[in-house]
Design a protein that fits this description.
- Helices cover about 20% and strands about 20% of the residues.
- The chain has 13 helices and 26 strands.
- The chain has a 9-stranded mixed sheet with strand order 17-1-22-19-18-26-23-20-21, covered by helices on one side.
- A hairpin with a 3-residue loop joins strand 20 and strand 21.
- It starts with a strand and ends with a strand.
- This is Peptidase S8/S53 domain-containing protein.
- Keywords: Signal.
- It comes from Haliangium ochraceum (strain DSM 14365 / JCM 11303 / SMP-2).
């Protein structure tokens, strides 16, 4: 048997160390799979997932099974904050609080730059916000009961406003970002220059509202703070790079005007921090951000007539955020009484956007798991609402109260296509067109875009190019679709949004698989198509002819389905990392024990026949589909999917050998194939926590505990070689995960039990 080797180094803060600090997994980055630690002594075992919900005591396992970890039932209401409640009141919000201790207001009354003389349209006026007036104390049960008694007595809905909104991807900086950037451009049909139109007034800038972690502001001015999360900035730059590929170059047009509207104002402790927040948000924060984007767009256009070059004829909203379905928003035919009031407020905000001729692109969501498999199935809201129709002309007239002036807003009607949903969802694929590892079951919409290892140049104005965070998830696929749609729309802003997205879809590449999410619900007759920029702009030219077609459009290359490759690191790059670990290792190279598949819980249950080094087979597991986790947040929340990741781009190479056993006779001789993994890990020096509990999860095989790796601190590197997997494979998908350790917060030690996980780019030597 081959011996396993582990090299661990601690990197100094030198330029070389910083360059190597990003995890080179050039394995396909998993927006975060589930990993679970082994039970320790008699303590209740904690199972982990990237969304990290705070849970109560863990119940017993369904069976006495060594592969099963106790998990708690989901707590929906009791984990939500008691100091903030949303209601929908058909008779309107009361002018003053009906009970002492509570402040009441219209949810959308003070959103952004809402001009007072406009007022709120009828469709938004009846959403009410009740907030506990004593900031340093939670409302007692009697105050909550009194509020319910009064509000519920009026036949209205009153529900907690849960902090359940999340960005949809993972975070990191990669050593090989330039290679990844080329990979993104190749797989999105990016253009070096966006051609000018034959019509002098076109392309006309479309306003793009990024509903995300960034503090609210005009991104064109570059004066907006970036907040405490890199998620929103990476989303915005991805959109901008596709729709404005060469700013400052007179030969290239710019199709979009970027603005940010914060939907994630909470920091990692759950505190409201609009400048340094960006980690989480309440559902109603998304609703308010959408309405704010419509108001800001209206305010801008109030100063410019439609004929003015600064007029922005259309508004596109990018929603790379979502919440778990258990917080409301799915299983309903529309915004009726069975939809939670916070979710209903987002639905109303999207209807408001669509009535004003805008369109929303939403990330389909990443698999966060849960004790009930239904929680991991299907798309997440608001992307799930692609199954619902956009409001028609009559519904818009009623919703808006006749407030939309046709002289200002380009029409939504009539569209040529009948496919006109409330939102347009997008799923994420890798470079080889396979869905990313954390794709939710039964959630793949009609449109797909590259969502693995997406990185943009941080700012084109910089003399020395630097990367944004490398991110993987449906968030980035949404950003890609938004950038493509904006670029195509700018040549024909008068085209109804439904026709625009229909064109982008039809110009995509057929991936030969049926969509699972579509208008009217599934099953869907439509296939999944991978969309790209060049073919979408070319399709717009073909549609509109000489009236506004781009000039000097290059010949578009169409990459056939499944013909792409993953971004594999060069031998020189791998050697550089291995050499760095060997040179910097404290104590030099050490020999590690043989790695064994761990009998702690599997990330996905229902497998059988797994075999460890000591020939102990896994029994069939009856655990829940995936596990829950914990975090320091006091309320249900969802983090970036995955949360801030210390190693978002790592790689694993594989090789195989055949071992022969027996006495040499045909009957007694057996052959067994073993696949060996070499794993390369580099921890970001800026990552705030130490890491433990390393686990390699090999798809189709099981979980391998990397016990010899010990604790990894920020700046550490590890190279693990010859990790045995007793099967021939081929293995094309694997992930590495860790648990976060204790950390100091405000002078006190807080236990932060969370999981990080990154899908590896796996390649054979």
């Amino acid at each position: 048997m081959r011996s396993s080797t582990i090299l661990v180094s601690r990197l100094a803060a030198s330029p070389v160390a910083v360059a190597l600090s990003a995890c080179i997994i050039i394995a396909h980055l998993a927006a975060c799979q589930v990993a679970a630690p082994a039970p320790e002594d008699d303590a209740a075992a904690v199972a982990l997932s990237e969304i990290g919900l705070t849970l109560a005591a863990t119940p017993s396992c369904p069976v006495a099974d060594p592969t099963c970890v106790p998990v708690a039932d989901p707590k929906i209401e009791s984990d939500c904050s008691d100091d903030r409640w949303i209601s929908y009141e058909p008779g309107g919000c009361p002018g003053s609080s009906p009970i002492a201790g509570w402040n009441v207001s219209q949810l959308f009354a003070d959103v952004g730059t809402n001009a007072p003389h406009w007022g709120l349209p009828p469709g938004l006026a009846n959403y009410c916000l009740y907030e506990w007036s004593f900031a340093n104390s939670a409302p007692p049960p009697s105050a909550i009961n009194d509020l319910h008694e009064i509000v519920d007595g009026q036949g209205t809905q009153l529900q907690r406003d849960c902090a359940a909104v999340q960005p949809m991807s993972s975070e990191a900086v990669n050593l090989s970002w330039e290679m990844l950037h080329d990979h993104v451009r190749e797989h999105t049909g990016a253009l070096d220059l966006l051609p000018h139109s034959t019509a002098s007034s076109l392309p006309q800038k479309i306003r793009v509202a990024v509903i995300d972690s960034l503090p609210t502001g005009d991104l064109e001015l570059r004066s907006v703070e970036r907040g405490g999360s890199v998620h929103g900035w990476g989303v915005a730059r991805t959109i901008e790079e596709l729709s404005c590929p060469a700013p400052g170059d007179a030969a290239s047009a710019c199709a979009g005007h970027m603005s940010a509207h914060q939907a994630l104002p909470l920091d990692t402790a759950g505190d409201h921090a609009p400048i340094q927040g960006g980690s989480y948000g309440r559902i109603s924060d998304v609703a308010r951000a959408i309405v704010d984007s419509v108001n800001a767009w209206r305010i801008h256009n109030h100063s410019y007539p439609r004929s003015h070059p600064e007029h922005q004829p259309r508004l596109l909203v990018n929603l790379s955020v979502a919440w778990e379905p258990r917080f409301g928003g799915v299983g309903s035919d529309g915004p009726g009484p069975d939809m939670s009031a916070p979710s209903r407020s987002v639905y109303a905000a999207l209807a408001h956007l669509r009535c004003w001729g805008g369109v929303a692109i939403a990330a389909a969501g990443n698999d966060g798991g849960g004790p009930d498999p239904s929680y991991a199935d299907g798309p997440m809201p608001p992307a799930a609402w692609e199954a619902h129709p956009a409001p028609d002309a009559g519904q818009c007239a009623s919703f808006e109260g006749g407030l939309i002036p046709p002289s200002v807003v380009l029409p939504r009607f009539p569209a040529t296509t009948t496919y006109d949903p409330l939102v347009y969802a997008v799923g994420a694929v890798r470079g080889d067109d396979l869905p990313i590892a954390v794709t939710r079951p039964d959630s793949r919409p009609r449109m797909a875009a590259l969502g693995a290892h997406v990185v943009a140049i941080d700012d084109e104005a910089s003399a020395i190019p630097s990367p944004t965070a490398v991110q993987t998830g449906t968030s980035m696929a949404a950003a890609v679709l938004s950038g493509i749609a904006v670029a195509a729309w700018s040549y024909a802003p008068g085209m109804p949004p439904a026709d625009l997205l229909d064109l982008v879809y039809e110009r995509g590449t057929d991936l030969t698989e049926a969509a699972e999410l579509c208008r009217g619900g599934g099953p869907c007759a439509d296939v999944i198509r991978r969309i790209d920029l060049c073919n979408s702009v070319a399709g717009m030219c073909a549609r509109i002819g000489d009236s506004g077609c781009a000039s000097a459009l290059p010949v578009c290359q169409r990459k056939p389905a499944g013909s792409g490759a993953l971004p594999i690191p060069s031998e020189a790059m791998r050697a550089q990392v291995a050499a760095q670990a060997a040179v910097k290792g404290e104590g030099g190279v050490s020999s590690a024990a043989d790695y064994e598949i761990a009998l702690p819980p599997l990330s996905v249950c229902g497998h059988s026949g797994f075999q460890s080094d000591d020939d102990a087979a896994y029994p069939m597991s009856t655990c829940p589909f995936q596990q829950w986790g914990t975090s320091s947040l006091p309320v249900p929340h969802a983090s970036p999917q995955p949360p801030p990741n210390p190693c978002p781009a790592c790689w694993a190479s594989t090789s195989s050998s055949v071992e022969v056993a027996g006495d040499g006779t045909t009957e007694a001789t057996t052959e067994a194939t073993t696949t060996y993994f070499d794993l390369y890990i580099s921890i970001d020096p800026d990552y705030p926590y130490s890491l433990t509990g390393g686990t390699l999860s090999v798809s189709g095989y099981g979980d391998i505990t990397l016990s010899e790796i010990g604790v990894l601190d920020p700046g550490d590197e590890a190279v693990l070689t010859d990790i045995p997997v007793h099967a021939s494979g081929p293995f094309t998908s694997a992930s590495v995960s860790f648990r976060t350790a204790d950390y100091d917060k405000g002078g006190s030690i807080v236990t932060l039990e969370g999981a990080t996980s990154s899908e590896l780019v796996v390649f054979a030597e």
